[in-house]
Specification:
The protein has 278 residues and is an alpha/beta fold. Helix content is 37%, strand content 20%. The protein has a 6-stranded parallel beta sheet, sandwiched between helices.
Length: 278
C-alpha cells in the first residue's frame, strides 16, 4: 500500500450502515487528521444536503466533517442549473433534492401543477414516497423532451438490517419505459471524484478512493486515475472482489476499515517516500 495523502471515503457501507457507525471509521479519520492527510466524504447520496450528511456524521461521532462532504445530489442540481439557469425541474427524489434545486436557482415542479409546459429536466434520486403517479409524471416529461438526469445508479442501499432498493431501481424503470438513457452524475461516472480532487488540490497519484461497491466505486476511481480500495462491509463479498475484472477490479481489498488503517499506519511508519509512490 502506498502512502496516500488524500482519502476519498464513500459513506454507505464504508463509514456507516444506516444509522450505525462501522468499526474503524472514527479511528481512521482521526489518524488521517493527526498525520496531516486530507479527507473528503464522497457519496452518491440523494437523501440529504451536504450539511445534513455532515450533521449525521457529527451525530455518529465522526471528527470535524463540516465542509468535507461532497454528494452527487448537490452535484446533480448544480449540473442542471448550469445548463438551464432558473429552469423548471421535476424532482423524483426525496424533498432534500428539491430543496437543493431551489438553492441552485431552479424551480421545482409540484405534482399538482399542469404537465405543460414540459420541465427543462427530470432529476431522479432515491424516492421513498414514490407513487405510480409520480413515476408516470417523470416518464411523460422525459418522453416530451426533458433532460433526464440521474443522481446515481446505486442498485440497492445498505441499511442496518440489510438492503433496500436504490436510486438505480427508479432510473432503470424510467430508462426502460422511455427508451432513453439517463445522464449520470454520481459514480460510476468519474466527475464527482475529479471534483473532489479539485476541491482539495490533490493529484490522482496522491489519492485513495475507498468504497464498498464493485459496480460504482471502482469504475469511478479507475476512470479518474486514482487508486481504489474495496472494503467488505457493504455491497461486495470477498469472492466477488476476487472474481472482478477490468474496471470493476479493485486495486486493494480490505476486510474493513480497521484493516485498512493498520496497513496505512504500517506504510507511513516505513517512510514510503513521495505520496502515492510505492
Amino acid at each position: 500500500m502506498d502512502d496516500y495523502q488524500t482519502y476519498l471515503l464513500d459513506l454507505d457501507g464504508v463509514v456507516y450502515r444506516g444509522d450505525r457507525l462501522l468499526p474503524g471509521a472514527r479511528e481512521l479519520v482521526a489518524w488521517l487528521d493527526a498525520t496531516g492527510r486530507q479527507v473528503v466524504y464522497l457519496s452518491n447520496n440523494s437523501l440529504a444536503a451536504p450539511e445534513e450528511v455532515a450533521a449525521k456524521l457529527t451525530r455518529l461521532g465522526m471528527p470535524h466533517p463540516e465542509g468535507r462532504v461532497l454528494t452527487a445530489g448537490w452535484a446533480a442540481v448544480q449540473a442542471v442549473a448550469r445548463r438551464f439557469p432558473g429552469g423548471r425541474v421535476f424532482v423524483l427524489a426525496l424533498p432534500a433534492i428539491a430543496d437543493l434545486a431551489q438553492r441552485a436557482g431552479l424551480r421545482p415542479v409540484a405534482m399538482d401543477e399542469p404537465e405543460m409546459p414540459t420541465p427543462d429536466a427530470v432529476v431522479v434520486g432515491l424516492d421513498r414516497s414514490l407513487t405510480y403517479a409520480r413515476l408516470r409524471r417523470a416518464m411523460r416529461a422525459i418522453l416530451a423532451g426533458a433532460a433526464f438526469i440521474a443522481v446515481n445508479r446505486d442498485p440497492r442501499l445498505p441499511v442496518e438490517d440489510g438492503f433496500e432498493p436504490g436510486t438505480g431501481a427508479l432510473v432503470a424503470a424510467l430508462e426502460w419505459s422511455t427508451g432513453r438513457d439517463a445522464e449520470m452524475i454520481g459514480k460510476p461516472a468519474p466527475g464527482i471524484v475529479t471534483q473532489a480532487m479539485r476541491q482539495v488540490g490533490a493529484r490522482p497519484d496522491q489519492v485513495l478512493l475507498v468504497g464498498d461497491g464493485l459496480d460504482l466505486d471502482m469504475p469511478a476511481g479507475h476512470a479518474a486515475g486514482v487508486t481504489t480500495a474495496l472494503v467488505l462491509t457493504g455491497l461486495a463479498s470477498a469472492e466477488q472482489a476476487l472474481a472482478a475484472t477490468g474496471e470493476r477490479k479493485p486495486d486493494l481489498v480490505f476486510a474493513d476499515l480497521p484493516a485498512l488503517l493498520t496497513a496505512a499506519r504500517a506504510r507511513a511508519e516505513r517512510g514510503g517516500g513521495a505520496a502515492g509512490g510505492a
